[in-house]
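Hi R.,

Here's the chain you asked about this morning:
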Amino acid sequence: MQLKHKIVALGILPMLLAVAVICALVIVQNQRLGEQQAQLIESAILSSKRAELKNYVALALSVIAPLHAGGRGDARAQRQALETLAKINFGQDGYFFVYDAKGRNLMHPRQAELVGKDLWSMTDAHGLPAVQALLKSATSGDGFQRYAWRKPSSGQETDKLAYVVMLEGWGWMLGTGIYLEDVERATSQVRAEVEGGIFTTMWAIASVALIAVLLVFGGGLTLSIEEHRLADSRLQALNQRLISLQEEERSRVSRELHDGISQLLVSIKFQFELAEHELETGSASGLATLRQATERLGGAIGEIRRISHDLRPSLLDTLGLPAAIGQLATEFEQRCGLAVIYRNRLAAAQLPDATAVALFRIVQEALTNIERHARASTVHIDLDADALGVQLRVQDDGVGFNPRKIEQMPGGIGLRNIRERVEHLGGQFSLSSNSGQTGMRVLLPVPASRAAELSLPT
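And the predicted structure, written out as tokens:
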């Protein structure tokens, strides 16, 4: 194959592959979004219809309320109520129906042949015993039931949403329903529009791809011998550069993995292999090696959980800031053997997320510094509120340090980053340290809307 053909192939094939992948992603995403949109539309329409049905039933109840309230057990009042309900209509196919508690139809203005019949065992097109489901929904459910029923205006069996209630004293189930053809039409229209959009998008992508292929092919055909050589030389340089960049990236990733979990996982792998060998040879130490490997695997899992926990303080989401700091203090006390005295005078209201995360991270960093450098025996953590906002104090009885010198040292999150975090939130930060006492004070403002919740004077 000639060089120009190779160049054309190298230009066209990856592009066609990328176009194919883009088309697949567009189809999947559009179908997913279209289905979500159809479900949202269906949910919105059904919610509106539920409210509409409740209003219709409430209207019917108000119409027969005088008869029901003054005619319990009165056959004449019941007959008059049925006649009144039979005359109430809304829309083309809107009507009320009445059944007794045993499934016998007492009134159906659009299907007179059903009146007086026992419909307890009648099922719809989906095999659902409709009347039983309606009675169950009226007595122990929310009153709504979806089933299939013959639509009077078309004679076709269609999905229907009904709302039913029980009339105490008469033992009646009164209800009405709305046929759901419009919901099906709306969702079908959305799906059709999505399909049309996909088709149009595919044509547009195909047109752009075709134009690009023709341009690449035409450009490849017009290359001269000198241009071939120049392109070949540049391609070789580019390939070499890509190889160099690839090796550099691999080295960087290798270093990052090697310094963390990778080393622990490799050692676990070796131990499992050793245990496998020892068990195959019948060595008595095989089981002990396997147990040791399992313990290290548990440590690796714990390390992964610790890293995941450090990425986002999930305690804040579940417990809130005061409880999260309390848990942090308890874990620190158990891990380091220091006495931690935690005082929380903050109300239980939720702080703004940025403020809560900042205070949690500050406590984390302060406890880490104390563990590594302070050689302290007691730590005090105070969380409080005053007129200016939320106040955090962390003190220890360690060896102390020079605050200015420490903050100017490079590396780590450090006190300098704590100061920048506080200043970014418009707060105040102060630090004092000498032998036997080191204290840090952080004050972060709270919006006026939260001040009352936190028992802060505004």
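The chain has a mean pLDDT of 80.

Let me know if you need anything else.
M.
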